[in-house]
Input
Amino acid sequence: MTVQTTRRPSSPERDGSRTPPHSTRPSASAAPPKRRKRKDPMWAKLTVVFGAVLMMGSGAGIAGTKWLVSNATDAVTQDNLLGGNQKGTAEGGGDIKGPIDILLMGVDARKRWAVDDLRSDTIIALHIPASHDQAYLVSIPRDTEMQVPAFPKAKYPGGTAKATEVFFHGAQNGGGWAGGAQLMAQTIKTNTGMTFDGAAIIDFNGFKSVIDALNGVHMCVDQEVKSHHMQIVNGKPMYLAEARKTAGTHEPVVHKKGCRDMEGWEALDYARQRYGLKNGDYDRQRHQQQLIKAIAKKAASSGVLTNPLKVNSLIKAAGKAFVLDTGNVPVIDFIFALKGVAANDMVLLRTNNGTFAGNGNGRETITPKSMEMYKAVRQDKLSQFILANPDVVANEK
Output
């Protein structure tokens, strides 16, 4: 029997969590925003930018605010994800008074998978213009053919690889997650010219806990798709690897068209699908962009900010979902720099017009138009580019 994802079975246990080595945990404090214009809480802004759930309840006192921000920054693991690939001074790096660029990498870190056996199927450049009143999500397709520089840290000699494989090569021979991220940043710079002020690795398996702590998110399914990752076994959602070992009633998970509230497992499973979709990975890119925005919007509108127990739950959930690198900029400075960015200010952009641009060998190239979009990111001229090319803006439903 086909199971639509409108039904609400109990959520599965997490497959496991990870703590990357050599992490440091800075603390920070902040003051609450004024109430003239409706603003998202600062922790929601950082969910938008690099996934950290930093909470500031409206009307919270200064002492409470310091406690919340300190607890949140302590909960989230920090590591050197950019290596020597930070945005240079000539590119506007070194401070965040100008445009801000963050590299977001999504991995599926399950307990049975080794730290050096992961690929980054989600690669997003998040651009915030110098006006600090907008946020743009620009995806780099997973199958893009990249010229990958040599990376001695992982004993990688350099070569040609898909974008999704770059993280894997950097993680080998002790490179770990930090090595994977560093090689990714270096490769993106080599192939697109884009550089970054900070970076984040998003454990999409850990994202489930964040969504559940928010009591779900609102997502719109634009085309029906059957899950290639999960089944319903005896009324409970399970990854296929576990489902195959479990006796009982097995039913498929089918994501039906329409808008609805989704639990963590359901939203993540939908955002992971690429097989069976009209535009394959491009549709998945858009769905993952939508999921990031949906989390930010739910965070901004949720009543959890007035409930200390829920606040603590969210902080702990976020700590299991993200690894961050804010470069040489203190976390608190990022918070204040983003005080004008709201979840509704996020713009989702399409690379390669949202379709596979094959080069004949199962990989694809970046079209000239998309290379111009990447150039607009570097020059902080995305708004002008979008005015001239409105079709790059993705449909959110």
User: Anything to note?
Assistant: Confidence is low (pLDDT under 50) at residues 6-64. The chain has one domain: 3-12+37-355. The two ends are 27 Å apart (CA to CA).
